[in-house]
Design brief:
Layout lengths: L6 E8 L16 H13 L14 H22 L1 H7 L5 H4 L36 E2 L4 E2 L11 H19 L2 H4 L5 H4 L7 H10 L20 E3 L5 E10 L5 E15 L7 E13 L13 E10 L15 H6 L6 E2 L8 H6 L5 E4 L3
Parallel strand pairs: 3-5, 9-10
Antiparallel strand pairs: 1-8, 1-10, 2-5, 4-6, 5-6, 6-7, 7-8
């Protein structure tokens, strides 16, 4: 069954084994001048009335103090409006400041953005992805140390190659248009028979078990990417695996802005989250080839990519299709990375759900 246009599909499978330009927060006023202004504002009260001996006159002194504070506050607003706006969570910093890299699983979903339609000029407008990094920059690699059969240098190389796999699987422009992901496949152990069988079927006769979308992002020809910017957020971690292997775990969300290939100004977003686990095996214990990994497991959670019969392509819905699409399914937040894909799947009975934002 197909859900609404913002349907979310979740699938799991397993294998056999920061302000550039030198400005300070958008203000042209250096911090030392700001501090001096505040200090002089306070010290400038030397001519204020002294503490009177008579108690009834204390109210007059309080009034002077309040008036002084009001004057200082008005001066601050007049002279430094950008600073004051920042104090109350407004201004460009609230939406435009890039987030720090994700080094661990977040505790909660990102805050709600002000509702705004995406445009060709601002395809991530009104989305948490507006503050995410672009491309490979949004996929965080950890510090490295010798693990399993690998030295520190080998671990670092394995992590880089794992990220290369994610990039060539989900960000390569040719692959996104539907081309065979040859560079990504070249990183996969050719001796892992079940995976090779999957690859042989997925691109020629995709079905539920052999769906290329389980590992690769490929769009239907009726959708066209907007610009060259794809936003990403996620992380890579590693530990010792079975038989001394280096086990690498990845969890990345990709946000693709798309528009109808037939033309028009409408822009929508397809959001794909992938968890992929691979083993870099010790060639003395597992049959493999240098520079290749064995696939351990993979999970997919996609929003506005299609929620129905397998086509092997991401099929985002646009306004015309959304107006006639049936509703249904529980609500989920595609930007919430505080739970795993497996936990999200367990929280609902249906495969398809309705996304609360795009």
């Amino acid at each position: 069954m197909r859900s609404t246009s913002w349907g979310v599909a979740v699938t799991e499978q397993a294998g056999s084994q920061v302000n550039a330009g030198g400005e300070q927060g958008g203000s042209s006023v250096p911090d030392d001048e700001w501090d001096r202004f505040l200090k002089e504002s306070v010290e400038g009260t030397a001519n204020a009335p002294k503490e009177p001996a008579a108690r009834p006159k204390r109210n007059r002194r309080s009034w002077y103090a309040v008036a002084l504070l009001v004057v200082v506050a008005l001066l601050v607003v007049a002279l430094f409006p950008d600073r004051v706006t920042g104090w109350f969570g407004g201004g460009d910093d609230a939406d435009g400041t890039p987030l720090a890299q994700e080094s661990e699983q977040p505790a909660q979903a990102p805050p709600r953005e002000v509702a705004a339609r995406p445009t060709r000029e601002e395809p991530f407008r009104g989305s948490p992805a507006a503050r995410w990094a672009s491309g490979a920059d949004g996929i965080t690699l950890p510090a490295t140390k010798a693990t399993g059969w690998m030295s520190t240098a080998q671990v670092q190389q394995a992590l880089q190659q794992t990220r290369d796999f994610l990039v060539t699987s989900n960000l390569d422009r040719g692959v996104l248009r539907g081309e065979r992901p040859a560079r990504a496949i070249a990183l996969m152990n050719p001796h892992q028979r079940d995976v090779q069988d999957f690859l042989a079927t997925a691109f020629s006769a995709p079905d539920e078990k052999s769906d290329p979308l389980l590992l690769f992002s490929r769009f239907d020809e009726r959708a066209r990417l907007v610009g060259d910017d794809i936003r990403t957020r996620g992380r890579v971690s590693y530990a010792a695996g079975a038989d001394g292997a280096l086990r690498v775990t990845t969890d990345v969300t990709y946000v693709y802005p798309v528009t109808p290939a037939g033309g028009g100004d409408e822009v929508t977003r397809t959001i794909v989250r992938r968890e992929v686990v691979v083993d870099w095996n010790d060639p003395k214990k597992v049959i493999t080839e240098p520079g290749t990994f064995s696939l351990v497991s993979y999970s997919l959670d996609m929003t506005n990519g299609g929620c129905g019969p397998t086509t092997g392509r991401l099929t985002p819905q646009f306004a015309a299709a959304r107006s006639t699409a049936p509703g249904g399914g529980p609500e989920v937040d595609p930007y919430d990375r505080s739970t795993s894909i497996a936990e999200r799947k367990e929280s609902r009975d249906e495969e398809c759900a309705t996304a609360t934002r795009s």
